[in-house]
Amino acid sequence: METFNTGAETFNASWVEAYTELAKKLLPFKNNRQALIAIIKEVYAEINIKLPTLERDNNIVDIDPFTVFGFFNKNSQTNENRVKILSALSKKIGVGIAALSFEGVPTVNNQNATFYYFIGSRNAEDIDNLWGLFESALKYIGDKSQEARKKFCHFFNLVIGAKGNNNGKITMGLYWVSAREYLNLDSRNQWFIYETDKLPTALTQKLPKVTNKIPAERLGDNDENETHYWLYAPGRNAENWGQFKSDGIMAIGWGQIGDLSDFPDKASMKAKMKELYGSLY
After folding, report:
1. Is the pLDDT of residue 11 over 90?
2. Can you list the positions of beta strands (E) in the chain?
3. Contact yes or no for 115/169 (Cβ under 8 A)
4. DSSP at 281
5. Angle CA(18)–CA(20)–CA(23) in degrees, nearest 5?
6. CA 55, CA 61: separation in Å to the nearest integer?
7. Any idea where the domains of the chain sit in the sequence?
8. Which of 15, 51, 223, 257 is buried most, with the most CB atoms less than 10 Å from its CB?
9. CB of 184 within 8 A of CB of 30?
10. Residues β-bridged to residue 108
11. What is the Cα 218 distance to its own chain's centre?
12. Is 126 exposed, middle or buried (0-12, 13-18, 19+ CB in 10 A)?
């Protein structure tokens, strides 16, 4: 089981690895979406749960991977049904899923759970673009080249402009795909970052504003002078912020690892972290 130790409490993140592996297994269906649709129908028939409405009259002709993730990430869904859907789907496409906690997983509104509009209301290329974003997002995880970045940004801008989508929904989908790589900018997170006093004003004033598209000036070939930021929250909901600010410290919740100065190098430190906290490290 993977966990994030915040110092104040342990945060179960077993879903992070499971979702990442599921995303990798979904990618080959980009060019075989009818097979994926057939699997989805089989899953819901086997677990005896009603298939969500994915088209008018549920005559499903196409599907995208973010909508598939939405099957088990709806805000009024019971944990029991989430586990049933995820477990059955994972088994069908060859992902080993152990017992999961969904703690910390953002959920999509039941009434807006597809990432596309139905036939007659969507553009012909909308679902293709969703697959393009999904594929380029997975590639960008391991390839930070300008070409990979531009491709990801290209599809992000196309998808964000489609009917029914917005920054919060699309970044939520990307967070499902790889929580280690992408930040969920749903309304709650935007409020926390930009409107509360949990983060230093000096930092939030420098952060780029959330926009519906990645601005053209941020797609340039040369980003060597670009400023990068780490988003840091001490404890759950930054509950230790006041204390840490007063003490002039930053801390990470690796209490079990002990004094970092006892390790001769980074490799031995990483080995101990992996032993204690699992494959997250």
Report:
1. no
2. 3-5, 10-12
3. yes
4. -
5. 110
6. 8
7. 3-190, 251-280
8. 15
9. no
10. 74
11. 22
12. buried
